[in-house]
Amino acid sequence: MATAMHHRIPLAVVVFKDDGFGNVRRIQEERYGNRLIACDLINPDFVRFAESFGAAAERARSPKELRAALNRALKRRDHPTLIEVPVGPFPSPWEFINMPRVRG
Question: Residues near 53 by Cβ (< 8 Å), separated by ≥ 6?
């Protein structure tokens, strides 16, 4: 954020905040009988963090709010924007990443 502000880079950053290492947590739940270690985080308020650098920042709590925040961020041409999106657990991405490729 400091570098983007220093160079006035009109970057839009989206932080999906799940208060932990979500993929690590899910793997531990699924593979290790819900024995959890080192997967929960205490995060800062990313909006206030970005604002402390002088960047624009906001929190989006719904897809509609995220769309509007992204539209505002992409219109800014003089400094970065951070958008924090509080989220719950995500589904595993691996079934999509490891899909067999169709050849044709």
Answer: 1, 2, 5
Strands (E), 1-104: 12-17, 56-59, 81-86
Residue where the block lists tokens 């947590």: 25
**pLDDT tens for residues 12-57?**
999 999 988 888 898 898 899 999 999 988 899 999 999 999 999 9
CATH code (residue 60): 3.40.50.970
Select from 103, 48, 100, 50 the least CA-distant residue to 79.
50
**Is 36 in contact with 29 (CB distance < 8 Å)?**
yes
Cβ contact 40:25 at 8 Å: yes
Tokens of 11: 């970057």
